[in-house]
Specification:
CATH topology: N-(1-d-carboxylethyl)-l-norvaline Dehydrogenase, domain 2
Structural class: mainly alpha
Oligomer: single chain
CATH superfamily: N-(1-d-carboxylethyl)-l-norvaline Dehydrogenase, domain 2
Length: 219
């Protein structure tokens, strides 16, 4: 599942930024666990809309990579998030780390894809607002906490069915196109065989006529 692997590898950096921000604010382990859990759902929701297998996000590419990136002290995205949570501007944070913080461009891409596929991604949207719209980190966290309660996996299986239906329709259209092409080829071959048989019968008729003429001449 290349699509699932790509989405999991990229979007886990966005959630790691968010976990770092909550750490910088001073939130505890429960808040981090909640953010990681909701982050898995958010990553899977977008990945499924793009055609990924939902089970991919339950494995190493999904939960495994996400947990280590959010928890490791060596994670650049987590470290950047901690500094942002403490109120340090993004430009200064990137200069201090002096390495690529993948979560920053990934956040922009995630929000663009969310709008493209019409997928709700509240965590990514709030992180985007903090990074690029100077939204206060505490306000962003409060807005996430005040959202209406919903099913944790709401919409995931529905999106999977939509993706499967689209793939099935695409497969049918391809097979229909192939059938039409084969029918055209069959018609062409039939017409060719008919023309060949007609030509043969015509040549035979001409040959018979010539033989009769020669016989009458000999007589």
């Amino acid at each position: 599942d290349l699509i699932g692997m790509e989405y999991g590898a990229a979007l886990k950096n966005v959630i790691a930024l968010g976990v770092g921000i909550t750490t910088g604010i001073g939130f505890g382990d429960n808040a981090k666990a909640a953010l990681i859990t909701r982050g898995v759902t958010e990553i899977a929701r977008l990945g499924i809309a793009a055609g990924a297998n939902p089970l991919t996000f339950a494995g190493l590419t999904g939960i495994g990579d996400l947990v280590v990136t959010c928890a490791s002290e060596y994670s650049r995205n987590r470290r950047a998030g901690i500094q942002i949570g403490k109120g340090i501007p993004l430009e200064h944070v990137l200069q201090q780390i002096n390495m690529v913080v993948e979560g920053v461009p990934a956040t922009r891409a995630a929000c663009q894809l969310a709008r493209k596929y019409k997928v709700p991604m509240p965590i990514s949207e709030e992180i985007y607002a903090v990074l690029f719209r100077n939204k206060d980190v505490q306000e962003a966290c409060n807005d996430l906490m005040m959202r209406d309660r919903k099913d944790e996996v709401e919409g995931l299986m529905f999106q999977k069915r939509v993706v499967d239906d689209n793939k099935a329709k695409a497969g049918k259209s391809k097979s229909t196109g192939k059938n039409k092409e084969s029918q055209k080829k069959a018609k062409k071959s039939t017409s060719k065989s008919k023309s060949k048989s007609t030509a043969k019968s015509t040549s035979k008729g001409k040959g018979t006529g010539k033989s009769k003429e020669s016989q009458s001449t000999n007589k």
